[in-house]
Amino acid sequence: MIQPEKERLYLDYAATWPMRPEVWEAMGAELRHGFNPASAHAPGRRAHRCLEVARGRIADLLGCPRSSVCFTGGGTQSDNLAILGFVRSHAGHAEHPGRPGRSPRVFVSEIEHKACLEAADRGAVEGARVARIPVDGSGTVDLAWLRRELATDPDAPTLISVMWANNEIGTVQAMGDIVELGHEYGALVHTDAVQALGKVDCDLERTPVDLLSATAHKLGGPVGIGLLYRRPGVTLEPLSYGGGQERSMWPGTQNPIGATGFAAALALALEGREAEVARWTALRDHLEARIRAEIPDARIHGGDAPLRMPNLVSAGIPGCDSGAVLVSLDFEGIAVSGGSACGSDSSVGSDVLDAIGITSDLPYAAVRFSFGHETSRADIDAAADALARVAARVVALTA
Ligand SMILES: Cc1ncc(COP(=O)(O)O)c(C=O)c1O
Which of 64, 202, 320, 342 is catalytic? Predict the structure, then answer.
């Protein structure tokens, strides 16, 4: 017999934020006008207007010129464009090892998303000198280390890429300090603000990063559209060629309907941000208190970071198999994400948890709860109850 679909509790907003009704309404109004904005005819011109209205709205919300907003297909593409675009714009130097000290340098934090880590690794293959900035036990980058490294070769073209907020443990970096330090040494600063935008204050005037990656689906917009903000005057080498769209930075037929959704989602996120941050912080603290009360040996990863995401809790439960916990929570109707800490010699596990020093020879479950505009205190209590039940069951099975 087919069972009726169970009421689900979605607590995985950091993976994808459910699209907000106002966003699909805004996109719906444009759906039947979804033509190619590069076409010269009337439908094409209308699509072009729609794209440019969205770009203008986003630029106003970010507080930057429209020409600084380059639409891409998402956060991964924006991160690659920032890092590899920087490396390739200095490729002439990289190809001439006879000019030591002038090949580009890229510093990425140890806890970056794979989009940045792997783009930087690729940059190393193409001649850049790449180093990973260590973090402390809370996931906060070591600025003293960075200062020492920057001072060793102050004339080299340098990019620092540090995510504004971490997607696994929610640590928020002091981006203002990072930008100040980077600029003191003439470096460009890129930030992956995919998780931060709409939740953390990402004011470009107060925190003048040079490059910023964002994506619509992490703030209530559609999947498949992102952006790279580029401060006026910052040059990058494009990663692909043909067509000339997005000022040749990201050529290919553009997505006016996605851009419309992105603009609507960003407006909503920023409009309600301060009130929501206060509400989420209370929910976060309540969830952590409940987890600590129910599972006394649980850890809260990144819990002692000076700056944290208001809507994300990463809990670690020793003696518990990660897969079993996630599957059991799914059976209970609760959608969350994992992450696991294994022995440092293990190939399966989370680089982020390794970087903050969580290693374990025993099974260790890491569960990430992330929430948003639809989450209530009752939802948080239901999740804490379910986690306590599931952890007790899995620990008993694992023992
Ligand atoms: C911090 C961070 N950067 C980049 C990405 C990739 O974004 P997208 O899914 O839009 O490619 C993600 C998505 O998980 C993320 O959390």
Answer: 342
Instruction: Note whether 146 and 288 are same-domain residues.
Output: no
For the chain, the residue count is 399
Q: Do 143 and 286 belong to one domain?
A: no
If we measure between CA atoms, which residue out of 52, 27, 28, 48 comes closest to residue 38?
A: 48
pLDDT (tens digit, 9 = 90+) per residue, 137-185? 999 999 999 999 999 999 999 999 999 999 999 999 999 999 999 999 9
Q: Is the pLDDT of residue 355 over 70?
A: yes
Phi-psi domain of 341 (left: phi exceeds 0; alpha: psi -120 through 50; beta: other): beta
Q: Is residue 370 in contact with ligand 1, taking CB distance under 6 Å?
A: no
Total domain count, the chain? 2
In a domain, 7, yes or no: no
Contact (Cβ atoms closer than 8 angstroms) between residue 164 and residue 177: no
Atom of ligand 1 nearest to the CA of 112: 1
Q: Is there a domain that residue 149 lies in?
A: yes
Residue 312 sits in the same domain as residue 204 = no
The Cα–Cα gap between 215 and 78 comes to 8
Token pair 């930075």 in the structure block, residue:
249
Which ligand 1 atom sits nearest the alpha carbon of residue 78? 11
Distance 101 CA to ligand 1 centre (A): 32
Domain coverage including residue 135: 21-270
**b/e per residue, 243-252, with b = 16+ CB within 10 A?**
eebbeebbbe
Instruction: Give the DSSP letter string of 334-376.
Output: EE-B--B---TT-SSS-HHHHHTT---SS-EEEEEEE--TT--
pLDDT tens profile 288-345 = 999 999 999 999 999 999 999 999 999 999 988 888 999 999 999 999 998 644 443 4
Task: Report the CATH number that the domain containing residue 337 is assigned in CATH.
Answer: 3.90.1150.10
Mutate to test the pocket of ligand 1, among 72, 80, 168, 195 (most ligand atoms within 8 A of CB): 195
Q: Are residues 245 and 318 in the same domain?
A: no
Domain containing 73 — which CATH number?
3.40.640.10
Q: How many Å lie between the centroid of ligand 1 and the Cα of residue 217?
A: 9
Examine residue 14 and state whether it is found in any structural domain, yes or no.
no
Residue 320 falls in the annotated catalytic set: no
